[in-house]
Amino acid sequence: MAYFKDKVVWVTGASSGIGEALTYELSKRGARLVLSARRKEALEKVKGNCASSAQSNIKILPLDLAAADTLKLSVEAAIQSFGRIDVLINNGGISQRGLAIETSLEVDRRIMEVNYFGAIALTKYLLPHLIQQKSGHFAVISSLTGKFGTPFRSGYAAAKHALHGFFDSLRAELWKNNIKVTLIAPGFIQTTISVSALTGDGTQLNKMDDAQSNGMPVAKAARQIANAIASRKNEVYIGGKETLGVHIKRFFPGFFSRMIRNAKVR
Description:
By secondary structure, this protein is α/β, with parallel strands linked by helices. It has helices at 17-28, 40-49, 71-82, 105-133, 154-174, 210-213, 218-230, 244-251, 253-261; strands spanning 8-12, 32-36, 58-60, 87-90, 136-141, 179-186, 235-238.
C-alpha cells in the first residue's frame, strides 16, 4: 500500500479492462493518477467511479498510441499534470483473433504500432525526466503471449515478444539510475479485450472468448499487478493454470509445441 502513496502514476489504456481496474486499485492506495486512452468520455466515467475524495488527484489525458507524432507532447502534458511522473504503466493496446495466413500486413503493422511502438515512444520520451529526477518505474502490461505464441495471435504475440526484448534491455541499462522495470504477463483475465480484438481484415471480433470470460476477475488481477509493481518485481505471470505454459515450454519444449496446437485460446 505504502509504495503508491502520493506517487504520480500514469496509466495508459485506462478506459477499460486491466487499466480501468488498476485505476480503482491505485486510487485506493493513495496514488495520484494520470489516465490516458483515446476516449475522453470513458476516462471521465472511470474517474467518476473513484471515491470523490480521490478525484482531485486524478487527471485526464486523452491520447492515441498509434499517433506517433503526438506522443512527445503527450509526455510533456503528463509531466505537467502534477509536476512529475514516478511510474508509467504501459497498458494500452489491442488484441488479435485471426490465423496468420488470413491476417493482412496492415493489421500486423497496426498491432505493432499500438502495442510496441506506442509504448516505447512514451518510454523514450519520458526517460530524460526520470533520469533527471534519479528515480522512476516502468511497468509494462505484456501477456503470456509475450513468452510463447499461440494460434490466432501471431501479430499480437510478436508485439508482446518485442516488448520483453526492449524492456529487458532497458532494465539492464538503467539500474544505475534507480529506474525499475517490471514486466507483467497476464493470461486469461475477465475483460472485453477479445470483443475489440482485430480479425484478419482489421474489423473487430465483437465476441467474448470463452477463455476470457472464464478467466481471473479483473479486480483480482489488478491487485496482483499493483503488488508486483510495489515489490519491484522484474517479471510476473498473472492468471490461472495457463501461466504454467511458461514453465512447460522452458523445460519440456517438445511437449509444449504439441500441446499448444490444440489449446483452447478463444
